[in-house]
Every structure is written in C-alpha cells, then in structure tokens.
C-alpha cells in the first residue's frame, strides 16, 4: 500500500515537471518570435531612412547644379512656394525673405581730368573753388553699390525698390537713387523717392562735358552761361523728392513727374542775376512727357513748370518781395537707335531742343550727337537772353555780368575701348569738349568771347 502510494506520487511529480517544462519552452519561443518581429521592423525603418537620405542627397545635388548654372548669383533658400520658385527660375535671383528677388550689383567710375579754368559753363557741381588763371588737373570718381528688390505676381502686378549708395574720392558717402515703385507690366507704374524721370536731352556716350550734370541741384551758376536741358524738374534732387505716374499703351508712353523741393537749390550759392534768392515755400514742378516709338525710331515731347507762386525771390529797395520762381520749360527729342537691329554697325543719333521761359531770362538750347562703332561726336548750341541783371561781384572770372544775349557753342566727343584685357564690363573712355562763348556786348576784361576746353580718361567697370 505504501509502495503504490509512493509510486503514484512520483508519477504525478514527473507529469507536473514535464508540463512545467513545456510551459517554459513555449514562453521562450514566443519571446524569440517577438524579438524577430522587432528586428524585422527595425530593418524596415533603416531601409526607409536610407531611401529618404538618398532622395535628399539627389535633391541637394540637383540644387547645387542649378546654383552653379546661374551666373553671378548666390541663392539662399527662403520660405517660398514651389510654384513661385518655378516662375522665377528663368531669371537670376537671390531669395531672402521669400517675397521676391534681390539683385546686388556695382558700378565703378573713376576719371582723370585736365581742363581749362578760365571760368565755368553753367557748372552742375560748382561747390569747388576755381583758379581763374591756371589749368585744372583732377582725379575724381565714385563707386556705386546697387540693391534692387522686385516681386512679381502671375497676374502681372509687381512692386520693388532700388537703393544705390555711393562713395567718392573725397571720403563722403551719398545716395544716387532711392526709390519705391509698383504697377503692372506693360501697363502702368508709380514711382516715389529720389530718381530721374525721362531724359529729354540725351547726350549719347556722355563722357566729359562740363555742363552735362544730371541732378536738379546747382544747375544754374550766376555769372556763367546756362545750357538748359529740361532737367530742372527731372529729379534726383538733394532738396526734395519725386512722385511719378506713367502709362504704356502700345507704342505710346505717357509720364507725369512731380518734383517737390527747395527751389533755391537750383542756383549755386542761391544767386540769380546778381541777387540772393530767399525761399518762401517749396516749389512743385510738374513735368508731363509723351513719347512714341516704332522700331529704331522714337520721339518725345515734354514741358516742366513750377506751379507754386512766390516760392522764392528777393526783396527790392522798396521792401517789396519780387517773385523769381516762375519758370516754364519745353523740350523735344528724336532718336534713331540702329543698335537695336545691328549691334555691331548700328548708328545712334539724337536731336534735342529745349526752351526755358523764366523770370527776366529766356534760354534756348539745341543739340545733335551721333554714335558709331564706339565713337561719339556731338554739338550743343545755347542762347541766353537776360533782361535784368543787378550785377555780380565774382572772383571766378565770371563771363556774364550784365544784361544782353550770350551764345555758347560746344563740341564734344568720346571713344570707348571695350572689354579691356578681354574682361567683360571693363571699359576705358576718352572724352573731350571745347566751348566758345560769345556775347553781343563787352564781356569780361573788354572781350566779347572766351573759350573752355577739357579732356578726360574714364575707367568704368560694372560688377
């Protein structure tokens, strides 16, 4: 009985151990299966990550090739939609904020001048002293840095800006253009800021003409001849700003520029006909232009007029204020630009006329110039009629010192050496001018004529 009981107990124990062993083996198998599943999932994730990495490397390689293909650009990827990137891919751009393109460029211009110094021809930068007996030798120039921003939409609307700081050899830093604009392509446009409006007296390859300034400041130098070129209301003034609206209709172009500024800035040292101008309020020049072009030919007509009365003038001996701000000018220019159809042998010809009706003075100017194979030759005739002159004490060998009529004949020429050292955009210009001044009466020192002349070497580089 005891033996059978013991045998039964031993048998039950063996069965129990065998069952427990089977249970343990099933748990290990399940764990191994789970481990295999996790390894397989990890391998899948690694393969997916490797595929994504290869795609990213391929995309980066493509972008690098596109960057190298663009000339002179350093693309910086911004937050821009893919559609906008594709739309602007045809033009070089630098994406910064994702709201348009930014263009950075430069313009180097340095001159070596030699000119007579027997007086001035309506200097435009007359803030320098002039020795009436000696020649003038000079090195001058500036470096301009330009920043242009532009954003265009698919419907043709656009907006942008231009800022052009420049540093000259005197160590000063100024600004050339500073403008904001917006409009619709080939339709209408609005500009506001500091800039120049339509050029109504183009001088072609203008390298060196003493009176060829392109700002609204210091155009008139009392005691010197005035070559009127429809620039008084054109803009780029240091004493005010412009507001311009324009419209393009097929071959027709319409423009209205408004210049608001201190009108006395027109005169060097604020003198006009021997009197110091006193500012009462700012002037407002309105300058409408209409032009038509067809192929190589274009023609434009314009006027400019100050519409503010008593903006500046002088106080007479009776204590009365005499207005001198009434100035209205008219101009017309015709151009044949053969370079549009023949870049090597095309001829560019400009015929310009301008007339100014001002207080106690009338001025007429006409000019003809032509450019062919980088050689330019031109002639400018100016006729000044002064009805009233107080008299001027001038230490700079003044030419005009009384009422009367005065004529100025100016011959100018220039030649361009293009792509110096086979370097694109590096040019050297040789320029010269010669002017004869005639009056209908006794001029300075009992003579009724005088001359001016000068020559220049200009180094010009764009980058």
**Oligomeric nature of the chains:** single chain
Tell me about the largest β-sheet: 16 strands, antiparallel, barrel
- The percent range for helix content is 10-25%
Q: Regions with pLDDT < 50 over 5+ consecutive residues? A: 70-78, 122-133, 442-446
Whole-number radius of gyration? 38 Å
Tell me the number of helical segments per DSSP (H or I, 4 or more residues long): 2
Please state the structural category: alpha+beta
What distance separates the N and C termini?
A: 116 Å
Order of helices and strands: HHEEEEEEEEEEEEEEEEEEEEE
Describe the global form: elongated
Main sheet strand line-up? 1-2-3-4-5-6-7-11-12-15-16-17-18-19-20-21
| Count of beta strands | 21
Strand content: 35-45%
Mean pLDDT: 82
Summarize the entry for a quick read.
It contains two helices and 21 strands.
Q: What does this protein structure show overall?
A:
With 463 residues, the chain is an alpha+beta fold. The protein is built from two helices and 21 strands. It has a 16-stranded antiparallel barrel with strand order 1-2-3-4-5-6-7-11-12-15-16-17-18-19-20-21. A three-stranded antiparallel sheet has the order 10-13-14, with no helix packed on it. A two-stranded antiparallel ribbon has the order 8-9. A hairpin with a 2-residue loop joins strand 16 (347-358) and strand 17 (361-372). The longest helix has 68 residues, at 2-69. It is elongated and about 150 Å long. The termini are far apart. The model is unreliable at 70-78, 122-133 and 442-446 (pLDDT under 50).
